Amino acid sequence: MEGKAPIMRRSALAAIAAIGSVSLLLAGCSKADDNKNENGTKSAGANAATKGVVNASDKKGGTLTYELSDVPDSFDPGNTYYAYMYNISRLYARPLMTFQPGAGEKGNTLVPDLAAGKGVPSDGGKTWTYKLRAGLKYEDGSPITSKDVKYAVERSNFARDVLSLGPNYFQQFLAGGDKYKGPYKDKGAKGLSSIVTPDDTTIVFHLKQAFQEFDYLVAAPQTAPVPQAKDTGVDYIKHIVSSGSYKFQSYQDGRQAVLVRNPNWDAKTDPLRKQLPDKIVVKLKVNPETIDQDVLAGDAIDLAGTGVQASTQAKVLTDADKKANTDNTYGGRLVYLAINTKVAPFDKVECRKAVQYAIDKVSVQTAEGGPIRGDVASTVLPPDIPGYEKSDVYASQGNKGDAAKAKQQLKACGKSSITTNIAARSDRQPEIDAATAIIASLKKVGINASLKQYPSGKYFTDYVGVPKFSEKQNLGLIMMQWGADWPSGYGFLQQILNGKAISQSGNTNLSQYDDKSVNELLGKAIGTQDLNARNSLYTQIDKKTMDDAVLVPLTYFKVLLGRPQNYTNLVSTAAFSGQYDYLNIGVASK
């Protein structure tokens, strides 16, 4: 998932991401618990939200504000893949399963949401059955049924020409998924035959192969119910029918969305949500520096959850009061450079290896904000994802690159120089700075790359995620940040390495990597019941990918979040890339 936050697309997903280790106190932050903030109230201390819930409260009322520097891919729960949208969409769209609010790894705990319990597997993990809770209603008071969940999955996965932005796991794994044309083209009442709804509270999924992590898959917002009669395809975003504790009061494309309490939400059917604020406002296209100012003033949350800007970071780390209101955590994400195997000469492994050796990763780390924003990376899997094994295939002294080896690989590729383009998101200054550092490294060995910038809201839908566009524009190198769709090797690797995941829009396999052995290993892994054996297969996939040099690991991402003091129930969760869990944040009295 993109950690944009991405499942979650990417960092896009961005974006569902898992984190493991979450401590790592900020330098010089000891005794932070004794600090008081500017309005005189005592701070919980640096990293407090990585260890527990800060400002725990059941107080109702007030307006909660989120701010985003661009626009999300979509508010439609069936057409999004950013981690922060997976996070916030749960306020108005309840999936079958979700993640329990909790600090760090505790946030990776799966719990039933729309479902009454976890999935019941049969047939060796090829069939999964879920029962819905009783008494579920939409915002208009009409009942939520299992047929609405079935339809939600069908529209989100099988109408890729209309809704292309989310992952397509269901399409890949449901029996007959390769033949079903989706509900907009198939007007029959039956729909996809491998999803069965024997009654209004039961849904059964029949898979073409065993899928041992299926409970994680149904935690995606794609299983949030959608009434077919109210679906308007890509325009559903304008009138989303809520199944959660909040509903849309208004939506202005590119400007803001306003959510208010859903009067037909019943706490008896929902043990997770508290429905605290009167109103939730999501402001879009806000200047990043303005977001930082509002966060530090205690009056907003950075929706993307990617942390404060570099200029703000310097102010925060030199001010004890401000430092005490921050959370520094691993984001369960990898910052990397995708090498497009469909853009010559990077269709040759030697040219890709030249890029691997050429890059000074320390300069990239510095451009991103230093060690506090990430450790230098050398593997596809981050250290906090199962299957990680320490390795450095393209090691260089001090992680500063090896120009001699890079030139050797260029020669082996039949090249003395290469001219290409490198893509980065225009509203993410650290990403632009990192790309600029990469350009400088590559130039030293004869690889001349020009920077191309695209807005994050359309990065995958219109630009780098469209293979025809990336090839036409000679985008041989693409900046990327990725977090696990769920906390496993498969949840991290599938959408960026499996050839079957390549799509013509909203694509996240930016290298367009389609290797038969990797595809087969992924399929074998997800059907393997023994956890240790499964994780060993993920390690093999990591090593094979690095040998093929299809992406350059840059840093194991860390985030430095500003913690707004005027809000309650703030907890940094592994499930959503280290972001605060958006399910139950409230407004404190001033």
TrEMBL record:
Species whose genome carries this gene: Streptomyces dangxiongensis
Can you cite an annotated GO cellular component? Answer: periplasmic space
Q: Ion transport among the record's keywords?
A: no
Q: Which domain of life is it from?
A: Bacteria
* Signal peptide segment: 1-32
Q: PANTHER family from the entry?
A: ABC TRANSPORTER SUBSTRATE-BINDING PROTEIN (PTHR30290:SF83), PERIPLASMIC BINDING COMPONENT OF ABC TRANSPORTER (PTHR30290)
User: What SUPFAM superfamilies has UniProt attached to this entry?
Assistant: Periplasmic binding protein-like II (SSF53850)
Task: Specify the protein name.
Answer: ABC transporter substrate-binding protein
